[in-house]
Write a structure and sequence with these properties.
single chain, 326 residues, alpha/beta, TIM Barrel, two-stranded antiparallel ribbon, oxidoreductase
């Protein structure tokens, strides 16, 4: 893959393309100063990022919109340069709620279309505007999941020109097969966004996705998550790993840059997250070196099958994806 900082788009199965590195915008609303996302997106666009990964449930899409609008007004980018990914949360899986949610997302962003729109998880929650519906005991309220019906509603959004590509996130093999084998399937998922880093390489899921021309997109690609609500496993910091650090020294790079380079050489899109300008810039500087085949195998051997974001508070959901091997 001859990718550069200027041209790093790779093809999707539906004929569209996606930048192989994206800027993740999730931030804990109570721990993140107002305006941080807006400033981060603006700086990221200046650095060269064109892929912005957002979601309605992040509660900061208005800041993403402001950043994109300002950069377009400056002449820094055109709308067609930006690749925006939005997400359908479980409270909107009822087919009747899908189109209104997509429309509301586009309205919030002042966009005519989303480049990619994905199901954030395979798990439906009680329909409504409450992001985390809970009962009187504080337990999340699940809803009967019909993934195929939700997918059909998303297909209608693509037919209407509201989204260019459709994908999923946190789906296991069985759930992907459910969509792929759906009667009268019009559009198969172009991607599956999942946790993936050198301590959790997702080899079997990656092989399955590649067999079906589904691109893997990696969130938490540096093995770091600062949101305690999603953490399942705690392990020593990935970026302190001696192998990654030694390879970084060899190429005059950081362990983080080595970890990101590892995944993009596997054909995986990476979504590093930081609102720190220095880190934003550092994470993007991964196109001027390559790891050897032997080095790639050494990093693959670091795999411990350790998942950071296990969504444990949803582990009793009938469509919880992580009870199965992959």
């Amino acid at each position: 893959m001859d990718l550069t900082a200027v041209d790093h788009r790779i093809p999707l199965s539906d004929g569209n393309s996606i930048p192989i590195i994206g800027f993740a915008t999730y931030a804990h609303p109570k721990l993140t100063p107002k305006g941080s996302c807006r400033a981060g997106v603006k700086f990221a666009i200046d650095v060269g990022y064109r892929h912005i990964d957002g979601a309605y449930i992040y509660r900061n899409e208005h800041e993403v919109e402001e950043a994109i609008r300002e950069k377009i007004a400056e002449g820094r980018v055109k709308r067609e340069d930006i690749f925006y990914c939005g997400k359908l949360w479980g409270t909107d899986f009822d087919p009747k709620r899908v189109l209104p949610r997509v429309q509301k997302t586009l309205q919030e962003l002042h966009l005519d279309y989303a480049d990619l729109y994905i199901m954030a998880t395979p798990m439906a929650l009680k329909p409504g505007d409450e992001i985390i519906p809970k009962d009187e005991n504080g337990n999340w309220i699940f809803h009967q999941t019909n993934l195929c019906a939700t997918w059909e509603a998303l297909e209608a959004c693509k037919d209407a020109g509201l989204v260019k590509s459709l994908g999923v996130s946190n789906f296991n093999r069985r759930q992907l097969e459910l969509i792929l084998n759906k009667p009268r399937l019009k559009y198969k998922p172009v991607c599956n966004q999942v946790e993936c880093h050198p301590y959790f390489t997702q080899r079997k899921l990656l092989e399955f996705c590649q067999q079906h021309d589904i691109l893997m997109v990696a969130f938490t690609p540096l093995g770091i998550s600062k949101n305690p609500n999603w953490l399942t496993t705690y392990f020593e910091p990935l970026l302190e790993d001696e192998l990654l650090k030694s390879l970084g020294e060899k190429y005059n790079k950081t362990a983080a840059q080595v970890a990101l380079r590892f995944n993009i050489q596997r054909g995986i899109v990476v979504l590093p997250k930081s609102f720190d300008p220095a880190k934003i810039k550092e994470n993007f500087q991964i196109f001027d070196f390559s790891l050897t085949e032997e080095e790639m195998k050494s990093i693959e051997a670091l795999n411990r099958d350790l998942r950071l974001a296990g969504l444990d508070n949803l582990c009793d959901h009938p469509e919880y994806p992580f009870h199965e091997e992959y």
